[in-house]
Amino acid sequence: MVRPLAFQLTDGRAYTYVPSHGSFTIEAGSNRADTVVELAPEEWCAYVWELRSCFAMLYADQISIARGSFGQLVRWEPPLRVAFDGQGIYDIDAPPTVEDPEGNLLDFTRTFTLDDPQDEIADFLHSTGFVHLRQVMDEDEVEALRVDVDQAVAAARPDDRRSWWTTVGVRPVCNRVNYLNDRSEQLANLGGDPRFARIAALGRADLRDARDRLDGNSVVIKVPGAADGLADLPWHRDCGMGGHPVKCPMLNVGIQLDAATEPTGQLVMIPGSHRGTSRLPSPKEAARLPLVPLSTEPGDITVHFGHTLHAAPPPTRDRGPGRRALYVTFVPPITFDMVGPGQGYNDVLFSRDGGHVRHVDQLH
Description:
This protein is of the alpha+beta class. Helices cover 24% and strands 23% of the residues.
């Protein structure tokens, strides 16, 4: 439940959003607010334009909660997005059915190969927000990618601002490396592979490889026994730090270097959630949603729109090598006008502790 929320700008202006019969009204001042958020006018503008989300501003120390809780700001963000820029709502309390263009209910467990009709794959992707493509790369190709990824992980350091780190026992362990394309010509050229060009076109015809910005080509590593940080990603959208109007419909293409199963911490999707904004579901709420775990083999490809709600729960096994997925990202042309080389919305995550990126619950 949302309660009155005020934004108090450093230039003295303040306005309170008051819930009212499924909508809200706006009042001058902050006296009635249960939660008061203080921020500068320029940060308010960045928030309204969705160049930064409330999470990004928290990581960057650009807001302070003078009264109330950060959680209330989080709960308010979806209805504010509807009001500010007309986004639709994905109702996690009553999720809509997901149908194909002919109105038929979809089998969310369906998988494809690149030999299947492209229109069928595209219809599934646009209906659900994700698709699983089997056997896109052979074992020799996967092994060659593993070699380059392993070299990049070995060279990573917690202070390089290109990698994320967690702790296993008392030992720092790398759980993500960005801009792999800077280290490997093979990895840099993935976006130009004809197979990946076909996959990108499933999302939209004009999507382009973002290898030199927005984290570049990156590897995500599921680390058994990880004790902190963002090694195990909770429910999120890939535009959750901001930039939805700039980089969506972003398409993230995940090359599976190892088998993805529940023991290794597989990706889990909420079908249809890319069609609107919503609060992030709690574990109890998520249990009522149509969750789709993606079980993959090495060489398989997972494809998802960045706005699709998804999570990567921790591995259920405590030991063994971490599962690796190599991501290539495709974005619309406007992204290249708004985001420069080497820049990305996730850069704010390094603002506090370098590569030891903390979960938001540890920040407030």
